[in-house]
Specification:
heterodimer; A: mainly alpha; Methane Monooxygenase Hydroxylase, Chain G, domain 1; B: about 400 residues; mainly alpha; 3 strands; about 80% helix; elongated
């Protein structure tokens, strides 16, 4: 049965954002496993993880398209529509960077990460997982804020954004450390190029998470 | 009198059908915010709407009805009893058909405007174009713009007040309790005032504007304080949930909406039926006819059947879909709709609760209170509001022709 009154209401885009953030989070965990596997001796499941990330990215893309496609012109949102889209783009870029990193690694199936750098790379990876995990929490808290308009809730969101900034700063330092080590050590030029690029791609994950946080800051601004 | 009896029986059928439609369409729409905001469960909504509509229709519903709703057509058209019978019958059926169609096509139209349009059709067929009071029709046109805009502004302001004075404060829960007497009071004020001024109750006991305002003020103060106590008693303090406070207040607004709807809208179905009944009984009608209580109750039962058979399904779907509407929002919409209907009918505009509710939702949306609202739908909806009058008028004209041939 169709209801007259109902056509005014549109599904909240925050539901979609939550769903998207969940996919991103799942992806982060798979990414972590993939990286650990790659570093470990005799990794056989790397390709399986990579496929898994591709699958999740595909699903997240569908969610993204659904959010964008289901906000007709003249939709009135609790937040600015373009801020919302830019937020979504940053959150999606997090996923793209994860995918890029694994793709990049797959071009050198064996020994892409020199032994002396393994620990540093894993530290960098860990440092970008946290900000990703925080994203879905931030969306949830922001959704709560727009429902309650409570100042307390706004502070919660703002604190998460601050945390995101701190995470990005940390991962920046790990990235820098790797680069320094790469140039200081005696590696062959191909390895140097591969490592520098890898560090940058992984570092970009945290950058995008921070950008997402900044967009959220604009959304919850009074 | 074989012919008259048949017309009367058919009239009862059509009147019931119209009342049924009011229950299925109008009531469900106006209770939607409360169900959507989970202030009341579906079962409670059906019971509240059913009981209070019946009570409102039977006891507050007007015992005297204008033969032509809202005086839109000159009463001269009723001079010929035979034509008056056919006209009332076709107007009733035409309005009911249009509302059914609108419900099927998911359009929030007004039952009041449908019956007004159908009466215009009957007027034109019965006595030509100069039978229609075009000035009165202009008021209907004005209401298409005024009622949603007015409700939009009030809902916007109301929600902003709630946000600024309660939600954004350091301790919203405490602030909500402090503000509760004001919010309950102002709602009671509007409700009591409209009970006296908008529904036929005021005329019955002889209280007009001057008398109603002090009474409304007094009940606002008393009920505001008593209501706050009640809310305090009903709310779980452990949760410290502002929405819960407004959820309790919204129970009150829903009750009021149901009561006043029964009182006012029953005439849409029963007015033309009363004309038929009176014609069959006495042979003539004037500008006004008395409405026996059993007719009002009959209309009330029709509304209740509509609520129970179709309205509950409408409300169930709404309750599941409008999850973005929390109690502070729902309260703002309800308050805006009630105030608009009161003010507009005081100005003599035939407004519809449905139109006002649509405006109210958009107002809260504009205040950024709802996650996503389709603002553009208002253009589409307005089209159907406009369409309602000519559509039911033309249907009524066609039915008039057909019935005139047969009878």
């Amino acid at each position: 049965m169709r209801i007259p009154f109902l056509s005014i209401f549109i599904t909240s885009p925050f539901e979609g954002l939550m769903e998207h953030a969940e996919r991103v989070k799942e992806c982060a965990w798979v990414f972590q496993q993939a990286m650990e596997c790659y570093v470990a001796e005799k990794c056989v499941r790397f390709e399986a993880f990579r496929t898994e990330v591709d699958k999740l990215e595909h699903e997240a893309d569908a969610v993204k398209r659904r959010i964008r496609g289901h906000l007709p012109k003249g939709t009135l949102l609790a937040v600015d529509k373009f801020q919302l889209f830019r937020y979504l783009r940053e959150q999606d870029s997090v996923l793209d960077s994860v995918q890029d990193a694994l793709d990049w690694l797959s071009y050198r199936p064996i020994g892409g990460i020199p032994k002396p750098l393994e620990k540093d790379v894993l530290l960098l990876v860990d440092s970008v997982i946290e900000p990703i995990e925080v994203l879905s929490q931030m969306v949830m808290e922001a959704k709560r804020y727009f429902e309650s308009f409570s100042e307390k809730q706004r502070v919660v969101v703002k604190n998460i954004i601050r945390e995101l900034r701190r995470f990005e700063h940390e991962s920046d330092q790990y990235e820098e450390a790797i680069k320094k080590k790469v140039f200081a050590g005696e590696f062959d030029p191909v390895a140097v190029f591969h490592m520098i690029r890898l560090a940058e791609i992984i570092g970009a994950i945290a950058d995008h998470a921070e950008n997402a946080g900044d967009m959220m800051r604009a959304m919850v601004a009074k | 009198m074989q012919f008259d009896l048949i017309v009367l029986i058919v009239g009862f059928f059509f009147g019931f059908y119209m009342a049924w439609n009011i229950g299925a369409n109008d009531v469900a729409n106006s209770m939607a915010t409360a169900v959507g905001a989970k202030a009341i469960t579906l079962r409670q909504a059906v019971i509240i709407a059913g009981v209070l509509n019946l009570v409102g229709a039977t006891f507050i519903g007007s015992h005297v009805t204008n033969t032509i709703r809202k005086g839109i057509v000159s009463a001269e058209v009723l001079a010929d009893p035979h034509l008056a019978l056919i006209g009332s019958l076709s107007a009733l059926l035409a309005a009911a058909l249009w509302v059914s169609f609108a419900t099927w096509k998911s359009l929030p139209v007004s039952t009041t405007h449908s019956i007004v349009g159908a009466m215009v059709g009957f007027g034109i067929m019965g006595g030509g174009f100069n039978m229609v009071r075009w000035g009165k029709l202009l008021a209907v046109v004005a209401s298409w713009i005024i009622s949603p805009v007015f409700a939009l502004v009030i809902a916007f302001v109301m929600f902003k007040i709630i946000v600024k004075s309660i939600l954004e404060q350091p301790d919203p829960f405490e602030r909500a309790f402090k503000g509760a007497p004001f919010f309950i009071g102002i709602t009671v004020f509007v409700a009591v005032l409209s009970l006296f001024l908008k529904t036929p109750l005021g005329k019955k006991i002889g209280i007009e504007t001057a008398g109603a305002i002090p009474i409304a003020l007094f009940s606002a103060v008393v009920l505001g304080l008593v209501g706050t106590r009640l809310v305090k008693w009903a709310v779980t303090p452990r949760l410290r949930d502002v929405e819960e406070i407004f959820r309790k207040i919204q129970i009150g607004t829903s009750c009021y909406v149901a009561l006043s709807q029964g009182a006012n809208d029953v005439a849409n179905a029963i007015g033309p039926l009363a004309v038929i009944y009176f014609l069959v009984k006495t042979g003539t009608v004037g500008e006004q006819v008395p409405v026996p209580v059993f007719l009002l109750a009959f209309g009330g039962v029709g509304i209740v059947c509509g609520i129970a058979m179709a309205g509950s399904r409408v409300m169930e779907t709404l309750g599941k879909k409008i999850t973005t509407l929390s109690n502070t929002r729902g309260f703002s919409v309800d308050f805006a709709a009630a105030t608009t209907v009161l003010t507009a009918s005081k100005l003599g505009l035939p407004v519809s609760t449905t139109h006002a509710a649509v405006g109210g939702v958009l107002g809260v949306g504009l205040a950024r209170g709802i996650a996503a609202v389709n603002f553009r739908i208002i253009l589409q909806i307005t089209w159907y509001w406009i369409l309602t009058v000519p559509a039911s008028a033309i249907t009524s004209m066609i039915l008039f022709k057909i019935l005139h041939r047969i009878l």
